[in-house]
Amino acid sequence: MLNSFEITGNINESYRHNFMLEEDLYISYEHESIFNSVEQGNNKIVVYGYCFDVRNPQSDVRDTLSNLLNDQDNFFNNIKYLNGHYVILFKIESTWKLITDAVSITPVYIDAVNSIVSTEKSENLLSLHGLMILNLDDFSISRIELPTNKLTDESIERIILDLVINQYKYFVDKELTLNFRRNNMNKAIISTLYPALVNKTMSLRETDDLTVKIGKWLSRDYKMNLLDEDEESTTLYTANTHLMNFKFFNTKNSGLNDEQRALFNESYKLDNEFLKGRSDLEFNLLNKMRYRDEKKPHLIYDPFNVIAIQERVYGYSNSKEFNPLSRIIKIIHPSIDFYDFAEGLTLLQKYNQVKKKAEKLDKEMKKYRVNEKFLSDARTRDIVVSDNVDGTILKDGITFYPVSQKISKEDVYEVLYKKKGQGMVLIESYFDNPKNAHRIKVELNNELFNIDEFLEGKFIQTGSEIKIKMYYERDYDAASWQKAGKITVKEID
User: Fold this and answer.
1) CB–CB of 471/412 below 8 Å?
2) Cβ 418 vs Cβ 465: under 8 Å
3) Most buried residue, 51, 109, 355, 378, by CB count within 10 Å?
4) Would you give the DSSP letter of residue 423?
């Protein structure tokens, strides 16, 4: 919509509409529906596009303009709280001046030599942003003052939240399309707009399966109209989130060399140490915003396109901890986290997945939990056992068996028993099945046996240690085979 206009000393007949600001000063433009003007005595204000005060959004742009004129003493401070996609021309104290929205979503170029303001791109012309004030009498430029005090990250997040929380009110009765991608910025903009999303439009900017699935869920739950893949939006407003990716712009990698930086600082009145520190940021905002140079069939809405936000959001001290998007989501609309945008799942689905994993893990861990006391008692008695056995610690010995009925032929069940006395040791097993006894092998002090060889008990004379390894020749999952691997070691006086 705000694709092109021209401000000059003559009517430009190539535009459909023209408005005389005063003799020898005209704005020529295309769309009458987004042009508004208000007068109060000799003071006048004109907007091409739309704007609203984020502190108390008015549905009618003219109400916003009237409020600005009603408080002329705080005019430039109130300008800081406007969101929208606009150029504003105002005459206060006899001079016409021009400002744009915070980042000038539609580039505005200044030809001071020919006294022309237009949207026609030229590398040789200065492009405005929202902190610059253009005097249309002499085409001089001044800047809106920025605060230099340093706030804590928490305070900045609080300011941003306060300036976002009411923005939805302007769009309650407007046609709006939300360009959707699966990221945290979109969670934040949905959190901002959700009270006004009923009957609005959703356009999927990506068409992978997860985006389509999430988009269908959201359009259903928020009662939005989901556009088909090849369908174009026809709404007046389009919601985007480019400025919410604030860390992308706040980088020193602007690509400016020393000469270019000096010229940029001079052109944009970055004339002290504080302002010079913003040169990369302001250059990036003017040159690295993807949609800035595109022709726009709609008016763009971005929650962070507010000078009062822009002058603070880049002042954080800890980039890892500073996260106003999460604060917006958590405080304004925490239920949006019911959807996991990254995995394409709902919170309920994730809960069920985690629950199944926990149940599986619980089953796996039972074999360790049931023998905790046995393992502890063995350690107390200085008996070394592997974690995969359970049993009973006797007064002068030990009875052990596999902790789980699920047995693998790779498992080895081990016990190292240290004699307390000088007598003999009885090794006894309980598997009375000679046909299958060879399937359980027992190594006793490095000598190999079948388990049934200990069925009647075997007395051995040994030194201080009895070392037993037991293993199965096949995999089993039966309580009977678990019981078959039971062995007792007992000292005999």
Assistant:
1) yes
2) yes
3) 51
4) S
Q: Residue 361 has which token pair?
A: 């893990």
The Cα 396–Cα 393 span in angstroms is 8
d(CA 425, CA 275): 88
CA distance 287 to 249: 10
Bridge partners (DSSP) of residue 39 are 44
> Domain 372-492: which topology?
Jelly Rolls (2.60.120)
* CATH architecture type of domain 5-143: 4-Layer Sandwich (3.60)
Q: What angle do CA 397, 403, 405 make, to 5 degrees?
A: 135
Q: Nearest-5° angle of CA 184, CA 190, CA 193?
A: 145
Listed in order, strand segments (DSSP E) in 357-464 are: 384-385, 389-394, 397-402, 406-407, 413-418, 424-429, 440-444, 447-450, 458-460
Closest to 455 measured CA to CA, from 431, 436, 437: 431
Give residue-wise pLDDT tens across range 366-425: 655 578 899 999 999 999 999 999 999 999 999 999 999 999 999 999 999 998 888 899
> What is the reported pLDDT for 296?
83
Q: What is the enclosing helix (H) or strand (E) of 467?
A: strand 465-472
Residue 367: per-residue pLDDT: 54
Indicate the range of 185-194, 307-316, 323-332, 333-342 predicted with least confidence: 333-342
Query: How many C-beta atoms lie closer than 10 Å to residue 443's C-beta?
Result: 15
CB 238 within 8 A of CB 179: yes
Cα three-residue angle 432-452-379, rounded to 5 degrees: 105
HSE toward the beta carbon, residue 303, CA cutoff 13 A: 29
Q: Lowest-confidence range among 125-139, 173-187, 247-261, 396-410?
A: 247-261
CB 178 within 8 A of CB 170: no
**Site of tokens 């712009």:** 249
- Which tokens is 439 given? 């399937």
E strand or H helix at 6: strand 5-8
**What is the CB neighbour count within 10 angstroms for residue 19?**
17
Burial 80-105 (b: 16+ CB within 10 A, else e): bbbbbbbbbbbbbeeebbbbbbbbbb
The angle that helices 258-267 and 279-287 make with each other, rounded to 10 degrees, is 80
Q: What tokens were used for 175?
A: 């046609």
b vs e for 308-321, b when ≥16 Cβ sit within 10 Å of the residue's Cβ? bbbbbbbbbeeeee
Q: Residue 172 and residue 64: Cα distance in Å, rounded?
A: 16
> Tokens representing 107?
């580039």
Cα–Cα distance, 232 to 220 (Å, whole number)? 19
What mean pLDDT do residues 301-329 have? 96
Whose CA is closest to 214, among 241, 176, 182, 178? 182
Residues 32-76 pLDDT 10s? 999 999 999 889 999 999 999 999 999 999 999 999 999 999 999
339 vs 344: CA distance, rounded Å:
7
> pTM of the full predicted structure?
0.73
